[in-house]
Amino acid sequence: MAQISFSSIFSSKKSLLSIFRRAKSTIQEALDVTNVGRPLQVHGWVKAARKQKANTFIDIDDGLVLGGKKLQLVIASHQVPDSLRFHSFIKAQGILKLSQHRGQEVELEVESIELLIPVEDLKYPFQPRKKYDDDLPRSYPQYRAKLNDFASLLRIRSRLSKSIHDYFHEQNFIQIHTPILTANDCEGAGELFQVTPANDTVSQRMQKTDVDSLDQAYFDKKVFLTVSGQLHLEAMCNGLEQVYTFSPAFRAEMGRTRRHLCEFSMIEAEKVIFGQDLDQLLQLQEGLIKTSLQNTLDSHEDDIVNFLKLNSLKHKSKQIGNDNSLEHVEKVLKEPFVVMTYAEAFEILDKHADQFEVQPHVSHGLGKEHELFLVQHCHQIPVFVINWPKNTKAFYARQCSDNDQLVAAVDLLFPSVGELAGGALREDKYEVLQKNLAGIKGLEWYLDLRCNGAAPMGGFGLGFERLIQFLLKVYNIRDTVPFSRRPHECRL
Known about the structure:
This protein has helices spanning 6-23, 27-30, 135-139, 148-170, 200-208, 214-219, 230-236, 279-314, 327-334, 342-351, 368-377, 430-436, 444-448, 464-472; strands spanning 39-51, 55-61, 71-76, 89-98, 106-117, 174-175, 181-182, 224-225, 242-250, 263-272, 338-341, 383-389, 399-400, 403-414, 418-425, 457-463, 485-486, 489-490.
């Protein structure tokens, strides 16, 4: 009796698997001209269908191809399922051929097609070649990833996020997963979401104890969604010299403008910094932004250009979305960021006070129109504004050594979005910080850091969605996230 070796069986199965895998292809593989002549099986969502007497031409994609490129299927019209609709999910098998149509190298000559999941709702909100008011896509976030422009944005967002993590790791920063639930109000502005459990067991416990509310029945104190991971990062920087976090943040602002989100992503970093060396923070922010933008541009330029083109057509009349060039990004990458003091900034603003709706006042900080004017004054180059009046910044900002009315703080102002990042050296003098914390409860541990071996440090926070808004010229910040939240609105 002949013996069959395990290796020969394994080799045979491996060959069959190899053939099967070659038959199943992604859209990216199907768009590769080197695969012409091969039998392929692809799947994706229908983005367009043009039916003629003999043949029908169907464009599909799987959401993974940069630049929004689609694969054209050519199929005999009598084979097309009657229920095929815009955004149906289909599977097709056929032979990849060279295309005779301008603008595409290949097409799939389909032998069989299967409608896997049809669009059955006759009220499905999106149809091909139609323009929509911005609010319509926001009203259907569950379908939004199928839209060409938003699919590009999500791919770019993912790549920019990776570039940011890569930069920090290359600079030997340690990532910290800071908590979402916290007892601290880092910013001191009171714009907090208070957390209370929706649990009957906890409610029953509250009735049997002396606690005043549901949150205290669970945590024994008031607890909130975080507005910033800064204070937790400072605690971790007490032992790790360089740390960062990339986390959700929540602010209970009541604004419903195009600038507001209740939930957004914050990039925050802390590092040991000696003396009054604010330059280290400026260099870290500039390096992070330029490197991350450049890496994203290098890998996803087709997607960025595609999005800018679609966005420009949609927002011709709006100030951010009326240009599909990359000049705004290239300028930021090429030019060194401008540095000016708060006093110098107000000298500029005072000279042009007649151009503002709200007059600038040195003790009130900067409004968005003032921020954008300063950037425009510097020829659309980002501006670091440093050394702020003490009363305009939070308790943790370090007092300047040569002027106790100023703090070593910095805001980074960017074209089209205004303030992109804010940071400061952290106050390390116990007596000064103790005075700054007067009347603020729950931060005794933070004060104790200053007398238990903590190093002097500084850090910043940068709004991720605002960086995307700049890169892609997105008019409304709600269109930089897949699921936007704002007052009276929390879909899904």
